[in-house]
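Note to self: keep these together.
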Amino acid sequence: MADTFDRKLQRYAELTVRVGLNLQPGQRLVVLGPGGQNGVPLEAAPLVRRIAEEAYRQGARFVDVMWGDEDLRRIRFENAPRDSFDEYPTWQATTAFEYAQRGDAVLIISGSNPRLLAGQDPALVSQAQRSGSNYTAPFSTLLSANAMNWSVVAYPGQGWASVVFPDLPAEERQARLWDVIFHVCRADQPDPIAAWEAHLGQLRAWYSYLNDRRYAALHFRGPGTDLTVGLPDDHVWGGGRMTSQTGIPFTANVPTEEIATMPHRERVAGVVAATRPLPYGGALIENFSVTFEHGRVVNVAADRGEEVLRQMVATDEGAARLGEVALVPTASPIYGSGLTFSNILFDENAASHIALGRAYRFSLQDGEKLPDEEFQARGGNTSAIHVDFMIGSGEVDVDGVRADGGREPVMRGGVWAFEA
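Structure:
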């Protein structure tokens, strides 16, 4: 029987509910838009309906969807008063927080047009993004502590597909991006759930090796990059499957190819060149570098979007420090596609990356239980934002730095330098 689009879409919805969320009978589910700050684009409705059907089959008590519209965002930037961009629909932030606080399942649909706001005033783009981050910070804090089972999946909107495949005829772009998504998410395999179990086991082997090594720092070297990322004494590597505070195993990203931990907020030094563009709030930051001293950003430079980048790191005190460091091998099927997705969910799973802003508390032993002051004292970073950008490629090497100063190879040319 031919493996039709309909069959692959159904398997993708099943992966979302059963592998990503691991939705439990009796749970409520809320579906949010990109970053948890915006509504789900209306064009994602076919996927959302499949997910809702599968959720109810798995015993969901209620499925709630927060809808949005990208064109309305663009219309706002073109027409709204210039002094109105601190406004935010507070009901969205309140609703997301209430679901998370109850321990309900949370699904975020990614796939917005990364160039939606191209040509708009970067100061207003940053202001609106900062306002959204501040209003949704209570929800984001619960998410970063795994208060609930949550996941992020993608829908290939027409605007996004046109950025990834600008040279294809317009009517072919979305279908082509769907094919890529199905492939890298293993939805085109005969038994996608079994394939995911094997993949999650491999991620577990890699992060277990690094947890055993207890490196004091990682050192990245490559074109334009000479960066040392110090690690807290009690850092924890993880990847793939996690467990919520309510005891439910889940997979936060579909797809996922990374293993990650927390940098020490005061022990990052050097310069790093981004290896892929960074979409942020509807703008695209390209060909940029960031310089750190004593854990803090002291300089940024970009060919495009530099002002947006500067305003991003000025969001709050923690926005200029790191909250995540992640390693991704070039064996990743997303890297192997040869595509630049201009979408964090995919690009972060194509290349090693770091994140400005909020640290995930589960990356520090007992981090979920700590008040902010003690969390920061042990090296954790707090912020309203968490923004990943890619720094890995086939030209980047990574060393593990031991507490005695000795070094061991972790990656060479984007390939693991150890066996696990």
